[in-house]
Amino acid sequence: MDELVENVFKSVCEQTGITPKMLFSKKRSAIIVDAKQSCAFALREWGFTLKDIAKELNYKDHTTISHLLNKRHHNSLKNQLIGVRAIKWHLSMRLMEMCDIESNMEVKNSQEA
After folding, report:
1. Percentage of the chain surpassing pLDDT 70?
2. Residues 6+ apart with CB under 8 A from 15
3. Do the Cβ atoms of 85 and 16 come closer than 8 Å?
4. What is the secondary structure of 90-113 as a DSSP string?
5. Are 59 and 65 in contact (CB under 8 A)?
6. In Å, how far from its chain's centre is CA 93?
7. pTM score, whole prediction
8. Stretch 78-104: mean pLDDT, rounded?
9. Are 11 and 89 in contact (CB under 8 A)?
């Protein structure tokens, strides 16, 4: 699984209080559908196609994702916010990784001098 997708799913699960197993289940309880909608919003914002999002969430095809994003309005704004937070969390994780790499490079350069 792509690092972005993994981070989005992990963040959404933490924010909504569900497990990854629940996220990928076929159950359609409101909390699980809300979490899936949050993931779909985040991945769509990142530029994933409906087909790609469906594949990542284990749906048969893109039509379910289209419905999830465009027709389902229950908690929609809250779920969009959770999706945005998931993307921000991913970006902060990437930034921290980049800073560690740069700080390690600085340490090596100063030791060589």
Report:
1. 88
2. 38, 82, 85, 86
3. no
4. HHHHHHHHHHHHHHHHHHHHHHH-
5. yes
6. 13
7. 0.80
8. 83
9. yes
